[in-house]
From TrEMBL:
Keyword annotations: ATP-binding, Helicase, Hydrolase, Isomerase, Nucleotide-binding
Source organism: Litorisediminicola beolgyonensis
Taxonomic lineage of the native organism: Bacteria, Pseudomonadati, Pseudomonadota, Alphaproteobacteria, Rhodobacterales
EC number of this enzyme: 5.6.2.4
The protein, known as: DNA 3'-5' helicase
Binding site for ATP: 34-41
Domain UvrD-like helicase C-terminal: 304-563
Family per similarity comment: Belongs to the helicase family. UvrD subfamily.
Source organism, top-level taxon: Bacteria
GO molecular function terms listed in the Swiss-Prot or TrEMBL record: helicase activity; hydrolase activity
UvrD-like helicase ATP-binding domain location: 13-303
Catalyzed reactions: ATP + H2O = ADP + phosphate + H(+); Couples ATP hydrolysis with the unwinding of duplex DNA by translocating in the 3'-5' direction
Gene3D superfamilies xref list: 1.10.10.160, P-loop containing nucleotide triphosphate hydrolases, PCRA, domain 4
Length: 678
């Protein structure tokens, strides 16, 4: 066999890729601990390619990644590797590659009838789920209680955490939401109402995709059937899976044969979504004999100085597998720790440096600015816009969050499942004269009907909607085949959009883009599932359309920067209150996760890394007089003893120049004050 593709791997990577008995037969369980930049993606892609080269059946490989982007990238890499050895393996047949949630949706869709689900079920994203939670909350009159009942978002977070961490409500409240603990009984009632509402509307939420999957896996016949369907199960980013996901995996491959998980405990950053680093730490002991562990600790990405600084930050963490990373990429340039006066000064300083680097030949796409929370980039976005620097932001408002795109998707969803009250509530109100009250009434009639599509045509809308109603009913009962449906919905929606939004013209290209995206999907069902589970998440900045200008800067939350790398990286607001976020300093676990976040940010950099520390933040209060400056401390993750790894830079304080006092002749102020009264 031509194994040329193995030549580019180092010793440990090769051991991970070829682990097994040299055939395509399922190998014993394997954990690959892959430090940042150690070639995790490369190793995983090579392992899949290697298995295929040995004769594994691609349709019997289950490959689960953290994002759709990662699954696509892996498939492309496998294809390249195989092409490199002149193989014509049908990579397309790797159709069980996707996120945990999308694979869950597929399993549930394939077996819906057998498990008592209507196969036409809709999938709700987080926003839809919190809307439905809110509807139930109102129905149960919990919003009317004297003391403030938790908001819809908090209720959903509590619910989600109970489900994903498989923890009783009382414990979740005590540990994570102590301020809601007095509402335990009401929350129980709310969650029970929420589950009933989902079931009567034929809706599954994001968490249900895992929960229902885990529940059917409890049937020994089903889990044996599904387990035998796959010879190889490979999981990427295992450090960010939750207990439910681990349970699914263990019931899929109880003896671990064919199971290979890859991850880095030092990069576990999703505990706030109930991911648990214990999954990866406990993996070897879950099997008898224990799973093999192969560690990749050679970093190919960053210079030695960047790595030394990152190692020093993570060095303080407790409980971890990964040894310190090492590299052969030497550099005399240390990472920079830049002190700025305030956020505006930080923004100016970052843009100055970025433009200077561009002059030196570093394209904007090779540079990134990372931050803990989406709103931290506000002042920077203003500065970039002012200075005409194009940028794309990841992790902020998603394309699909914009009202017009949501309207179109909900029209499609309601067309598919007219029991879906959240979709119905939104689209009915697109018609003149239909407000929340009449929409609610009409939806109740639909939910109670055995044939909602037929009932829809018989409903009596308010008078103002009479003219538009027949067209609406025709649209929703149309049997136009996919993907022409989306063009039909757009044609119906656009005239309404023109009435609703002043900037309708600017919004039209988004709908066209959505239509274009839809052409890549075989069915409406597949399209809606993917758009809900893994929506495209870049928004163009105001500073020009980055698609027209090929070179643009990347702005990203640290979470969304997972798995990425750039030559130069700036990290904003490395101060206490931002990293660690002041919302996450309750428990040691939370603080540890924040430390790992900073580590993830730092290890994205190949050649240059700058951490920025503004001294002051401007806080806006409720009244004018409450606006004030607060002073920030350097992040606790950069204690004095590790500062030696950084070049500390305090740039010329421009702001101060404005307030530097003029030289004045010596004056005896005290004497003059006394003189006033003498
Ligand atoms: N054996 C190798 N030889 C040369 N370069 C390598 C090798 N393995 C990995 N690299 C390079 O190292 C960089 C990091 O690789 P990759 O993106 O696969 O890392 P990763 O482990 O997934 O990173 P992270 O977990 O930090 O996101 C890439 O630029 C990749 O090309």
């Amino acid at each position: 066999m031509n194994e040329k593709y193995l030549e580019t791997l180092n010793y440990h990577q090769r051991a991970a890729v070829t682990f097994g008995d040299g055939t395509a037969r399922p190998a014993p369980p394997l954990l690959i601990i892959a430090g940042a930049g150690s070639g995790k993606t490369r190793t995983l892609a090579h392992r899949v390619a290697h298995l295929l080269a040995l004769g594994a059946d691609p349709r019997r490989i289950l490959l689960m990644t953290f994002s759709r982007r990662a699954a696509k990238e892996l498939k492309a890499r496998v294809e390249n590797l195989l092409a490199g050895i002149g193989s014509s393996y049908p990579v397309d047949a790797l159709d069980w590659a996707g996120t945990f949630h999308s694979i869950g949706a597929k399993v549930l869709q394939d077996h819906a009838l057998a498990i008592g689900l209507d196969p036409e079920f809709s999938i709700h994203d987080r926003e839809d789920s919190s809307d439905l939670m809110n509807l139930v909350r109102h129905k149960l009159r919990l919003s009317e209680t004297h003391t403030r009942f938790p908001s819809k978002g908090t209720c959903l977070s509590i619910y989600s955490r109970c489900v994903n961490s498989e923890t009783p409500l009382a414990d979740v409240l005590q540990v994570h939401f102590p301020w809601c603990a007095t509402w335990e009984d009401e929350l129980k009632g709310l969650f029970s109402g929420y589950v009933q509402a989902k079931q009567s509307q034929n809706v599954l939420d994001y968490d249900d995709l895992l929960l229902a999957w885990a529940q059917i896996m409890e049937d020994p016949d089903f889990s044996a059937f599904l387990g035998s369907f796959f010879d190889h199960v490979l999981i990427d980013e295992y450090q960010d899976t939750n207990r439910l996901q681990a349970r699914i995996l263990m019931s899929l491959k109880p003896d671990g044969r064919g199971l290979c998980v890859v991850g880095d405990d030092a990069q576990s950053i999703y505990a706030f979504r109930a991911a648990t680093v214990r999954n990866i730490l406990d993996f070897p002991d879950a099997f008898a004999p224990k799973a093999d562990v192969i560690t990749l600790d050679r970093n190919y990405r960053s210079t030695a100085t960047i790595l030394a600084a990152a190692n020093s930050v993570i060095g303080e963490a407790r409980d971890r597998f990964t040894k310190d990373l090492w590299t052969e990429r030497n550099s005399s340039e240390r990472p920079r720790l830049v002190t700025n006066e305030d956020e505006a000064d930080q923004a100016r300083c970052v843009v100055d440096q970025i433009l200077e680097d561009r002059e030196r030949g570093l394209r904007l796409t090779e540079q990134a600015v990372l931050f803990r929370t989406s709103h931290h980039s506000g002042p920077l976005e203003i500065e970039l816009t002012r200075r005409n620097v194009p940028f794309v932001k990841f992790g902020g408002l998603k394309f699909l969050d914009s009202a017009h795109v949501k309207d179109v998707l909900n029209l499609l969803r309601f067309h598919r499942n007219s029991r879906d009250q959240v979709a119905g509530f939104r689209v009915l109100q697109l018609l003149p004269g239909i407000g929340p009250k009449s929409a609610g009434k009409m939806l109740n009639q639909l939910t109670e009907s055995a044939e909602p599509h037929v009932t829809l045509a018989t409903l009596a809308p308010p008078k103002a909607a009479h003219q538009d109603w027949p067209g609406f009913v025709t649209l929703l009962s149309s049997s136009t085949p996919w993907p022409d449906q989306i063009a039909q919905v757009r044609a119906w929606y656009e005239p309404r959009m023109e009435q609703m939004f002043e900037d309708a013209e600017m919004r039209k290209p988004d709908l066209l883009q959505l239509e274009q995206i839809s052409y890549g999907f075989a069915s409406l069902e597949d399209f809606l599932t993917e758009m809900t589970l893994d929506p495209p998440d870049a928004t163009g900045g105001h500073a020009g359309d980055p698609h027209k200008d090929e070179d643009y800067l990347i702005l990203s939350t640290i979470h969304s920067a997972k798995g990425m790398e750039w030559k130069s990286v700036h990290v904003l607001n490395v101060v206490d209150g931002c990293i660690p976020s002041d919302l996450a300093t309750g428990t040691t676990e939370q603080i540890e996760e924040e430390r790992r976040l900073l580590y993830v940010a730092m290890t994205r950099a190949k050649d240059n890394l700058s951490l920025h520390q503004p001294l002051r933040f401007y806080e806006t209060g409720q009244g004018k007089l409450q606006n004030r400056h607060v002073y920030a401390m350097r992040s606790r993750f950069l204690p004095d003893q590790i500062l030696g790894h950084f070049d500390q830079i305090a740039p010329a304080p421009r702001g101060l120049a404005r307030i530097t006092p003029p030289t004045i002749n010596t004056m005896d102020i005290k004497a003059r004050m006394r003189e006033m009264w003498s």
